[in-house]
Amino acid sequence: MEVGLEHYLGLSAMLFGIGLWIALAKRNAIIILMGIEIMLSAVNLMFLAFSRFGRSETPIAGHIFVIFILTVAAAEASVALALAVTVYRNRGTVDIDRIDLLKS
Amino acid sequence: MDRDLGVALGFWGLGALAVVAAFGIILTQNLLHAVLLLILSFVAMAGLYLTLSADFVAVAQVLIYAGAVGVLIIFAIMLTPTSSRINADTVFFGPGLILGGLVAVVMGYVAFKTPWDTVEGGGFDSTVAAIGDGLTNRWALPFEIASVLLIAAMIGAIVLVRADVPGQVLHPEGGVADEPAMEIAEPRVEGDRALVTSGRTDA
Amino acid sequence: MLLANWWDLRTLANPVDSLLGWLRDHFPDWVAYIVSGVIGATAIGLFLGVAMLLLIWAERRIVARIQIRQGPNRVGPAGLLQPIADALKLMQKEALTPREADSWLFWLAPLLLFIPPVLTLGVVPWGERMSVADLNVGLLFIVAIGSVIPLVIFSAGWSSSNKYSTLGAMRSMALVISYELPAVIALLSVVLLMGSMQLGEIVRWQQDHWVFGMFLLPVPFAVYTISALAEVGRSRADVVEAESELGSGYLTEYSGMKWGLFYAVELANALIFGGLIATFFWGGWWLYGLDNFIPTWLIFLVKMLLGYWIFVWARGTLPRLRIDQLLQFSWKFLIPLSLLFALLVAAEVVIWEESGVSDLVAVPVMIVANLAATVVLVVGVVRLLGFRRVQQPRRATLTSEIGIINRAVARPAPSAPFDVREPGVAE
What we know:
The structure holds 3 protein chains of 3 kinds.
Chain A: H1 5-25, H2 29-53, H3 60-91
Helix pairs in contact in A: 1-2, 2-3
Chain B: H1 2-27, H2 31-51, H3 55-78, H4 93-113, H5 127-138, H6 140-161, E1 187-190, E2 193-196
Antiparallel strand pairs in B: 1-2
Helix pairs in contact in B: 1-2, 2-3, 5-6
Chain C: H1 13-26, H2 29-66, H3 82-91, H4 103-113, H5 115-123, H6 138-159, H7 163-194, H8 199-208, H9 213-216, H10 218-232, H11 243-246, H12 257-281, H13 296-317, H14 323-355, H15 359-384, H16 399-402
């Protein structure tokens, strides 16, 4: 059977929804970061699907945008994890239900 | 014919794997299982990129996401030992499911109902050459800004994680015996003598 | 039917091509597709199996001869059946699983560790037109596979639920990650010069320009070899398996055939890195025209074994370094060195393209220039890091005078520890 643009977009939407669910439903800050990374990956898939199937004069723009998303995601992951480790050092936990007061 | 069959098999199989792995992250009880399922999901998505003939991006996804971000997350989990290793849920478990489901359904509906103006046979002779050409000619400025961003992130992460106080002890694994695994030794200058303390905070 | 002439065996692609052509004539297309995949997979599997068996014997004999003793020589003629004896012994051992271990991961980790070698062997050009899958991004593919190995090592170490295993796994992860960077930057120089990430193209470039990569790129060759040594976990970098330190690191809890798999995969990794060094820096299956007479896959096998022999040689002779020494070496020395050389290669490529000199002039000039640049860069980076030649002390002095970094207490050093005066002579 033919797999077209709609199928890739539908899969990307489902993965985005799951990533959103992970980011909302979990307590550990690191798991929330994992949800965000899944959302970014789903968006990558959408960009590549459009680059492959869409009509454009620079179809490589999809690939290049995805490379930039990869770069920014890696940078953001490193800073977010550094923040998580720092919060852990100060509060002893990365459970977001326990670090929700400004005063420790 | 067989190429489309291969793409279809790859799409359904890898798509199912990615979705199941992502579901597993929510439902599993063990934090480290969640990380490994995340990495499995990334590799499955790299396979999906390959079905779209994006070979460079697929390999870059494995290299950056699975290889680097995955390892980062594992190190971060190892550096936060006394925090709970059980994958606990907040009160937004149900509402999050509803919201995520709604977002997915709405976007999926838009995806399937819109008459897309698609091109058949899209693809490149060599994605690497095209990407290199794009990054150095037309999108050179974002490329340079991305490199500045990476440097800023790297320096920021190092500054954040570095111990503020000389002598603060960093534990790679909280369960290890009481002697510190790494110590920061700072020289304390008294007059014209340099003394190197052993870094214990009780000194 | 398969070979038109006997000398067609110089590349195994010829019989495979004629077989696939016959299949395409008589069967639908997908049959030939599946058969070619099966042939590639079977070839790699057979090669790995036979190679691991032989290499266990070869490595133990060679290391033994380096250490002035005989290796295994009891089982079979000259010990050739030793690998089979080892395999039988390992298979009948009790496969212990620690009670608190994560049994899924514990069982899965050795199998997962087997995947990277097999995938890497798929992209490597074994002979002319003899790659299983000559990817456009073959080089980046190999790098990406190498970056997944730390994850498998971690899951092996952590699932043992043993603190020493976890610690050893983290150390090994840090080591492999630190040495991936110089390896990738060295390969960056290779890609810049040879203009493609496709491994078959890299070998063809060396063939067209009549030069080995090693002559043009001495620094990447050295850096890649050293990084490969560290990534595989061989001496001098085998802190992972330092039995005297961590009791076998992340392998501690593995017994029986699972340990045998880890050991075999280490050998396979060493062999594959030897094959990669042969592809990038030694011309792959091409050998200055001799590949018209000798089968190309034989040439590649010999070069791959030569690369592997370098690893065994290093294991037998060099001492082990500490983990922090290794990490400092990688981050402070190898990365700046390979980065500077990559800059130099990029400048050279641009000059070569813009000026349009012919290959005959450009290649020898580049060889000489790169050799000079190697010496300058190595000496320069070493000086920059502050290493000086240690002057041999001409007379006994306190160690604080030679200048070791950690001084307990700094005192003005006396000129001599003992008074060199004649006994009985007044002050």
